[in-house]
Amino acid sequence: MSEKEVESRKLGVEKTLDGLPGAIPQLSTNRAQLHLTPNQRSWLRFRRNKPALLCLVFLALLAPLVAAWPLVAPYAANAITDEQFQPPIWKHWFGTDVHGRDLLTRVFYGARVSLLVGVVGAGVALVIGVTWGAVSGYVGGRLDGAMMRFVDVIYSMPSIIFLIVLLTTLRATVAKWLINWFGPEAAPKSHLLLLVIGLGALSWLPMARIVRGQVLSLRQRAFVDASRALGASHARILWHHILPNVWGIVIVYLTLTVPSVILYESFLSYLGLGIQPPMASWGSLVAEGAAQINPVQIYWWLVVFPATTLVLTLLALNFVGDGLRDAFDPKGQT
Amino acid sequence: MFFLKRLLFLIPLLLVISFLAFGLMRSAPGGPFDSNRVPATPEIERALRAKYHLDEPLLKQYVRYLGDLSRGDFGVSTKYRNHTVNDIIRQALPVSLTLGGLAFCFALGLGIPCGVVMAIRRGQWADHALGLLSLIGVCLPGFVLGPLLVLGLAVRLDWLPVALWESPLHFVLPTVTLGLLFAGKVARLVRESMTATLQSEFIIAARAKGLSESAILIKHALRLALLPVVSFSAPMLADLLTGSFVVESIFQIPGLGGFFVNSSLNRDYPLLMGLVLLYAALLLLFNLAADVLLVALDRRIKYE
User: Fold this and answer.
1) Domain span at residue A257?
2) Is B151–A259 a contact, with Cβ atoms under 8 angstroms apart?
3) Contact between B9 and A145 (Cβ < 8 Å)
């Protein structure tokens, strides 16, 4: 495939992605689909998957709201009032917590942390995981063995121990680095940065394995031999010929990496190892709510609202991931 | 023969893991007898460090540790100072093994039938309903599910005990809390692989031969569809059997999971090393066992 063709293919996909419904002609017959690229066909299949599409819309609405939350939030992030343990009322939709803080405000501030961590974790998986897997699978031999054993060794340590030790090792360095670069007012952010680094250090492992497996089998194919015979460099073969075949599966696993990183972050914050008060994430909010459970008085809203938001977001992400996987499955029906 | 070789290969692999864990652990700042952990005069701190040989060069400490390890001695915990690591593991491991084993059986017992039903009824309402349920299971973290179950089944309805680890009735809620996530994952995995298997040619051949539908499903399709479950089960079982901090703290169960978190926070070097090695040994053994099982299930698989 020439460079021009690759370019035009990319453009074609983007056009479809941006296109309004109806901009694409009705493509229900196989004949009409002949001129479509595999990616376009996948996108068509995805659009027919109503639950997945619905979840994508939900996420597309949630993301800007979460991003712009400091501008639209009804209360300041940590505005402490006398109205402790208010059940949900018109003034406080999600009720208030032990310090009289508005829970709705806190859930969405928590969403910022949870989603940020999820997206960065997926970003690390994309950059490091794909590079690691692609190089390992393409070069093969001893380098492959060494790179994959490295992944295996990290895998065979209990992840929680690995993470705690890693976090404590890096804590001082990260705090110093942050203060040097952004001044002392950035110091409270060091926990967040550290958390992101730690979760990123784990999130790329499965991706590296998956990409390596794919590249390993693609490397044997005739079109790779052909381009090598034509004198293409290794970097060019990898980037222009092998990786385009891997992106589909990479996107699928990225959408599934986001919820798993969010889940792990909430687990860490639940343990008190992640985000530190007064900042909140979904995990720490659930933990705060669970700490208030007692047989006499149940402040159900403190658990129910953060937990529901967490579970709904994870569900939506998984639905989209599943939908993408089905859509990119080469054996799938058009 | 091949598996014997791999069994022997586990020993150097564990050595490498122990070396890296040792190095990583020691490169973390702080130690078990820092003044914020153990308030004491410098002399006492020095004496404590000497007692645990922490004042020696690192390499010498590592060699000493390996020597003790070869005699089956994991050393003495620096936090729980009257207990050897062997003691702690001996006390907590049976509890975690019971809970983890139950959760594992629960996950497979619920997940596999659900997955099979979804694959057979693909595209019908049973598939959609079970698919949604298994996805919810995957998205429900233990720290959400646990308190919800306690509130509903134990506090409100008073059917089951709230916490502790005594009679079989006490086992129910922790097992479900721990196992549901994995049940959901297994169900989704079985659905995928069963669907793919049911479309393969040898199933069509079996149908053409006139075999009964149940014979096709159980003897032929399920056997192959279980292959990915076997591979997935190995790390899952290692995770489950070494305990879960969340489930143990919600239900106040004296298992091993809490030690994973606490030993790392306390810099309890001997306990930490013991747990890392225990987990790694279980994981590697189960991975090996999974490979043996794969060959038993599918004779076409060959190992060099």
Assistant:
1) 54-332
2) no
3) no
Distance CA A125, CA A252 (A): 12
**Distance separating alpha carbons of residues A303 and A292, to the nearest angstrom:** 9
In the 8-state DSSP scheme, what is residue A98?
A: T
A331 CB neighbours in chain B (<8 A) are 196
Q: How many domains does chain A have?
A: 1
Identify the CA nearest to B108 among candidates B255, B265, B281, B226. B226
Residue A19 domain-assigned?
no
Q: Does a structural domain hold residue A137?
A: yes
> In this complex, do B27 and A169 lie within 8 Å of one another by their Cβ atoms?
yes
Q: At A120, which amino acid appears? A: V
Decide if A320 is inside a domain.
yes
Question: Given an 8 Å threshold on Cβ–Cβ distance, is B246 in contact with A267?
Answer: yes
Task: Tell me the helices (H) and strands (E) count for chain A, helix number first.
Answer: 15, 0
Residues belonging to chain B with any Cβ–Cβ distance to chain A shorter than 8 Å: 13, 16-17, 20-21, 24-25, 27-30, 135-136, 138-141, 143-144, 147-148, 150-151, 155, 196, 235, 242, 245-246, 260-261, 263-265, 272, 275-276, 279-280, 283-284
Q: What are phi and psi of A96, to 5 degrees?
A: -130, 165
Q: Which residue has the tokens 């809490």?
A: B258
ipTM: 0.78
Q: What are phi and psi of A82, to 5 degrees?
A: -85, -10
Interface probe with B: pick from A165, A170, A261, A268, most Cβ of B within 10 Å? A165
Contact (CB<8Å) B275/A161: yes
Closest CA to B20 of B12, B32, B31: B12
CATH number at residue A100: 1.10.3720.10
| Cα–chain center distance at B218 | 28
| Residues of chain B neighbouring A297 (CB-CB closer than 8 A) | none
Cβ–Cβ under 8 Å, residues A310 and A114: yes
For A226, the 3-state DSSP assignment is helix
Which residues fall within 8 angstroms of residue A122, CB to CB, at 6 or more apart? A203, A254, A257, A258, A261
- The predicted model scores a pTM of 0.79
Residue A209 lies in a domain: yes
pLDDT of chain B along its 304 residues, tens only? 777 888 888 888 888 888 888 888 877 777 777 766 666 777 777 777 777 777 777 787 788 787 877 777 777 777 777 778 788 888 888 888 888 999 999 999 999 999 888 888 887 888 888 888 888 888 888 888 887 887 777 767 777 777 777 777 778 788 888 889 889 888 888 888 888 888 878 888 888 887 777 777 777 888 888 888 888 888 888 888 887 888 888 888 888 888 888 887 877 888 888 888 889 888 888 888 888 888 888 777 666 5
